[in-house]
Amino acid sequence: MGIDAGLVTEWRRGRRAAGLVELAVCRRLRALAAGVPADQAIVELGAFKGRATGWLLLGAQEGHRAHVTSVDPWGLRKDGYSSMSPTYTAPATYAAFKGHLARIGATKDTHTVKRGYAASVGAKWSGPPIGLLFHDADHSAEAVAADLAAWLPHLAEDAVVVLHDACDPNHGVQAGVEQVLDAGQWPERELIRWNRRPHRRGALIVKRAVADAGDGGGAVLAESDDDPDRGGLDPGADAPGPDVPGGQ
Ligand SMILES: C[S@@+](CC[C@H](N)C(=O)[O-])C[C@H]1O[C@@H](n2cnc3c(N)ncnc32)[C@H](O)[C@@H]1O
């Protein structure tokens, strides 16, 4: 059976998987996941309803079948850190995550769920080296730095780190990265801007070493738009926007 590519990549309005990651970044996650060797892990910090999880699983399946682990506290986090907290913590959100993963064909062989905080789970990680770390959890600089510091010892030598919402000045993603991923050791940075709203969402891709100089390291890209139904609304720093039906 495997992961259902049609379901994961469905992007028609009203049919796409609920989530907060734009298509350009989902596609990049798929490609990066496909490049992770079988003996390395793919780890996602902040899964919400599983949109990006599906793309990571699909990419892994198309590549070397690296295992994907999703870390999120869902309803365990009760401090209201984000305007979206009521949605993040609602029981229906975790149910939606589980439902989406079941529908697309995730199994225990391909996917593990760790319900907890990114930094705590990272501190206890005993799995294989991580080839791809996708961060889309708490976007404050302090949280990003703490999460990265916890996972840094587990990253493979050629690991790739992707951080979502890196282009949003309301968040501290880039500041958190600079606190932990030393530019000398992690020289490659690529910023993917969301061309519909260059100061919302977006992702920063960080690589440890310049293995293939000239592939766009340090570039600032505005990928083709992917979210045609977002209209003129500005959902705010981390609100879901109209691509998430029913306020999900
Ligand atoms: C922006 S959403 C993630 C969106 C998701 N990547 C997608 O594909 O739609 C942020 C998620 O981070 C989770 N979160 C909050 N604090 C966290 C933490 N300390 N560690 C891990 N996840 C956290 C929230 O529960 C929420 O589900």
- Category from helices, strands and their pairing: alpha/beta
Radius of gyration: 16 Å
Helical fraction: 25-40%
Order of helices and strands: HHEHEHHEHEHEHEEE
Structural summary, described in words:
The protein has 248 residues and is of the alpha/beta class. The chain has a single domain (5-229), classed as 3-Layer(aba) Sandwich (Rossmann fold). The protein contains 8 helices and 8 strands; from the N terminus they run ααβαβααβαβαβαβββ. The chain has helices spanning 5-9, 23-34, 51-62, 85-89, 91-104, 118-123, 141-151, 173-180, and strands at 41-45, 67-72, 111-115, 130-135, 155-164, 188-194, 203-207, 220-223. Strands 3-2-1-4-5-7-6-8 form an 8-stranded mixed beta sheet, with helices on both faces. Helix 7 (141-151) links the parallel strand 4 (130-135) and strand 5. Helix 2 (23-34) packs parallel to helix 3 and helix 7 (141-151) runs parallel beside helix 8. The longest helix has 14 residues, at 91-104. The model is unreliable at 213-218 and 224-248 (pLDDT under 50). Bound molecules: S-adenosylmethionine (SAM). Residues 19-21, 45-49, 51-52, 71-74, 77, 88, 117-118, 136-138, 238 line the site of S-adenosylmethionine.
Question: How is this structure best summarized?
Answer:
The protein has 248 residues and is of the alpha/beta class. 29% of the residues lie in helices and 19% in strands. The chain has an eight-stranded mixed sheet, sandwiched between helices.
